[in-house]
Amino acid sequence: MLKQTQTFLRRNRANIAIGAGLLGSIYVGANYVLGKLTDAKNRMATDRIAKENLRRRFEQNQEDCSFTVLALLPTATERILELLPVEQLTHQLQEKKAARLAKSGAPSEVSFSALSMKDDDGMSVRSLKSEPPPLQSSAGPKKTKAQLWNELKITSITRAYTLIYTLALLCFLTRIQLNLLGRRNYLSSVISLAERDTESPIALENNETNPQLSQEDYDVNRKYLTFSWWLLHRGWRKLLSVVEVSVKQVFGPLNPRDDISMAQLRDLTMQIRKTVEGDADFSWLPFLLPPAGDEDLVLREAGVIPEHVSSSGVSVFGSSAPLHRLLDETSDLIDSPPGRDVLNQLFEAGFAVLLEEKLAEQAFKVVVMPMPGVGQDGRVQEVVEVPPDAKTKVANVLAVVTRQAHLIGNGIPNEYLKAMEKQPDLTGFSAIIYSNFDMSKALPTME
């Protein structure tokens, strides 16, 4: 038996060798393939985790943008309301009415809240009163009733429209700033993990949600965010002056006693918007960021750098290359065609809430009807259709606009901001900023 086996092996040793080699190759090949499949599976899992982490960070970043806008907006709102005191004008009109009542023999102690809704010319006085208490009349030459109504007309519309523009610009700028910094911080955490030579994916838990920044990066981020100071203290003033001139031209000829239709109101508003927003090449940059050379002024006025540092002749802004890069990219995004398109959508959304919802319901008394189906936010859709022949007094429009100004600037929740944030192009624009991993721009300073 042994001899036969040896004979068989001698005769077939070539075939056996070939078979053994083939089996070995198959084994090695199978292990190689299995190893590659395992690596691919691990890479896919890592990529999936990384993408999910990036998505969650991005969504959190957009929520942070909303809270930031609501936190910053009152700074500009307070100054706009102080500069355009519609309530003070209303109070003066109420004083004149009280004086006429006294002359006519009516009781002298009549509170303003008890005054008739209709003045002798048919215009509403009390309806123009909004939530904040009326301001005291300012000293100066007495104005006629017609002068007060005309000033109230221009002031109330200018105030509300300026607040819509300011809110939209602040929403736009905040999205750019926080998404640029979100991308920067994300890459900083990636580099930090790579330098530690770890193979673990970037997690969202523990310290990875808020990666530890170096002191230099923290200072750069803080100074960069400070540049919203320009819009909140200077930009809105430039904007208000433009809006006011346009409002005087468009609404100036209207008498508060005149009837006005929704179509006329839309047309007048569009005339103002065309004047304010300009053509396709119009730049919003001067309203959002300081001109070249005024960067240190912003940092000083905002209290980021001490007075003695800024007056020493050394530019804090000029000596910070990372801050330079962030502001340069911000300027490019503001003036980019996609950026202008997004801003236009934000303006559209804000004015739509004021005209098509608030004025339609409160001035034109249109009943809101539910539509079948649900919107993107999961709520039942609603439609407001103003009949072509529906009209209201200009004074009624002013009353609604006066009240809405406070809700545009201080409303919580803010319906105007919510409408702006629902614009799909805003989310897309933010996503492009956040995911644009151009290493020359996005990486933290490596000097």
UniProtKB/TrEMBL annotation:
The chain crosses the membrane at residues 16-34. This is Peroxin-3. GO terms for biological process: protein import into peroxisome membrane. Pfam families: Peroxin-3. One of its GO terms (molecular function) is protein-macromolecule adaptor activity. Keywords: Membrane, Transmembrane, Transmembrane helix. It comes from the Eukaryota. InterPro entries: Peroxin-3 (IPR006966). GO terms for cellular component: peroxisomal membrane. Residues 123-142 are annotated as: Disordered.
